[in-house]
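> tool_call: predict_assembly(chains=two)
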Amino acid sequence: MMEGISSEAASLAGTLRLGKLIYLYDDNNISIEGDTDITFTEDVSDRFRGYGWHVIGPIDGMDITEVDSAIRVARAEKDRPSLIICRTVIGYGSPNRAGTGLAHGEPLGEDEVKLSKEQLGWPYEEPFTVPPEALNHFRQARERGSRQQQEWQARMEAYRSAYPDIARQLELDLSGELPDSWDSDLDSMFLSEDKPMATREASGRIMNIISPRLHALVGGSADLAPSTKTILKQKGHFGIENYRGHNLHFGVREHAMGGIANGMAVHGGIIPYAATFLIFYDYMRPPVRLAAMMQQRVIYIFTHDSVGLGEDGPTHQPIEHLAGLRAVPNLTVIRPADATETIEAWKIALENRQGPTALILTRQKLPLLDRKILAPAGGVQRGGYILWQSAESPAIILIGTGSEVHIALEAGRLLEQKGIVASVVSLPCWGLFDAQPEEYRKSVLPPDIKARVSIEAAATMGWKKYVGDEGIAIGIDRFGASAPYRVIYDNFGLTAQRMADEAERLLKGR
Amino acid sequence: MMEGISSEAASLAGTLRLGKLIYLYDDNNISIEGDTDITFTEDVSDRFRGYGWHVIGPIDGMDITEVDSAIRVARAEKDRPSLIICRTVIGYGSPNRAGTGLAHGEPLGEDEVKLSKEQLGWPYEEPFTVPPEALNHFRQARERGSRQQQEWQARMEAYRSAYPDIARQLELDLSGELPDSWDSDLDSMFLSEDKPMATREASGRIMNIISPRLHALVGGSADLAPSTKTILKQKGHFGIENYRGHNLHFGVREHAMGGIANGMAVHGGIIPYAATFLIFYDYMRPPVRLAAMMQQRVIYIFTHDSVGLGEDGPTHQPIEHLAGLRAVPNLTVIRPADATETIEAWKIALENRQGPTALILTRQKLPLLDRKILAPAGGVQRGGYILWQSAESPAIILIGTGSEVHIALEAGRLLEQKGIVASVVSLPCWGLFDAQPEEYRKSVLPPDIKARVSIEAAATMGWKKYVGDEGIAIGIDRFGASAPYRVIYDNFGLTAQRMADEAERLLKGR
């Protein structure tokens, strides 16, 4: 009740009139530092009524009959979520610890366990004893559950006969599989584009191609849908007048958004996405971590991914966030270099059923990489690939991600003019690249080529792994600035000229 | 009003009856995705009354007289914080944009600016015109301010005469300086200790030595004071019965705790500390980032800093958090190896007036490094130092931080038994080490010694910078596990034997 996410979620549940939602509030008046009076004197009833909730209680939370009947009352309320305030005693039954903070933070200890068993009338000395009555109760529950499942399956059969298409859709959604040819024509989406395009824009277009074919795709933004380009235009908006909408509005509540996306993924039948600016990842780190730990397919769309967002300035410009994301185990982080790499990033995100994927997208427009003269974007599937090489036997490797790849490419061309052969590598996903066989990794980053320069508009942490002892990582290890993005790029040294100069310097120094 | 931190802070302000606090709620009914009805239908009056606030309004927030008199009413209320609900119109005066989301997200444009000026009766065409009436108003305000400052200074003089000691204390606190000899006897604190001690325990003892001498030290924990060992025993608890207490109770509200600590630092006169488990840093990343950006002296005490916390398991075991902290610009991150390094860490934190410092401390006990045979702990001041070397001309460098330093030391001794000379480096603070002159860095990590092994119970991201192309970073690039900490260390390969084996392998491979 104290953590901010509880307010975010409850306020949204009230707005959406989620009548099926029931909270049991275990109100035991105790926290680790002592009585909650020192930190929490609010009237929870008033607060939740303010959120538009149905409030029941306080009831005696130690009385099963009272709790059971409160749940019945809550279930009968269809239009509002229900809060049942249960007055409880922490460490109930322990003669010396009940109702104290110690019951939260410490084990009771052997003596107090014994005294508690006596007070509770629990005759079994052996720990983890399951009395026959309890065993019997659970066996009955299992039988009841089995009957209910059979009934549900019979209803499902009837439904399938009546509505074969919708039933097929439901089963496909619940299976978590992607429909056949869901991505059949994605590759050709941007073939006729020649104008620069932000990767957030490309992502929005891709989503709107996929969405009509992929019914399970449901998500939204923390009040940044227009800016993150995440509205599914052929789907309705989710709200009290339309629970069938696929476009959710989370409000300015990133933390709850992350938690809700996890809930949708764990529920199944849905492939949730959650969108905001990359800087606001800081507000939703805990649920992103849990998605990774729970191996859930949640897709994060983080736009405005660097100082390239321009005038909003340092409070809004991510610096350390890419490093932070890449350090999370089991989270796939992809920063595509243009619209064509963004297609591949979406394929990876949707096909990844072992964990969440974060798409890192630009606000600013980026030139489309010309695949007629460059390697195909399919290389994104391997995390990194040689995008272009001016001739055989390069003397230097230039590496970039996302919005800096075209700068690396330009640097490669500057070097070419000087007769220096460079290999330009696009490295949109460290995790996927690191998971490739050694042979492949060595083909992209040959160990004998020690002269390497990387460029990324973010903290340089971690780049030594790719540029090596002798290489140079161009990045930003300070906070950003408020200016048009081209000015920032120049002032922070994120330029092709600097990259080429560093490369030359490296080659001369050898 | 939607973001969780607003609830955390408001609930605590109500509990603490902060009568001087006044919120002006700019209630314009608009968010970026449209009308707030889609996400925010709560009754804010009820919610804030639930928090124990004095609620005024709704008033017409576009009417200066109404706002002014509401503020007067709010100031007259001494026992509760006040919320003034101001109904406002976003883009007020713009005939075509007022009251719409566009007024938030986009510039008005030249034509609409012109129309708005007409509607508002603003006769000046030139942007940024300051009319004479406004100029005059502000000049009068400046004179009034100057008079009030003189009055305050006269009162301060009288106060100094009446209470010279307290006045001196106040001025010292406001200067932000540390008192003379505040750290005079810290170095000898643990000389007679021979039992293993957790660095959280050492930190708690240090704080309690410092606290009586350093009046400005004020802080607390997000309901984990007993576990983080952060109670100042000679100071009272802050609460409605004692606003002079130095021990704050933030409740389970990490995000608000970080924000409040920033406010205290910016206010001045206070050196705030904020304590929680390292895993919960994820809940307070935004305020930590702001402290770094604002260059404020806030001290974070993050305990339970790795899988070493044991049984609480992966949800509570930090993995990526050290890398994340280190990537934040201007944040000093120190992970001391034992009680003696913890003394140095506290000195650095208190003397650092250019930004926040995070102390990364263990739950588990660690052996005290024997300074009679090892280098002095003062090396922490340089971020990293050679702790021990079995002989001249080492063949290998072993590096550790925090709870893994004693493992590196043990590995060094295993190698010594095999006749291999190792240098053992303690590297508690990357940032300070990187800021040392090249000569010093090369003396600790001589470039010609390529055989290097590091150990840290965290993600390995960033370690290549120190172990180099040929070196090996032992760490944890997956989520943790629930087990006693020695079992986890064994199972995750965080052992002296593995470290020694890797070192030998490196030497043989050359």
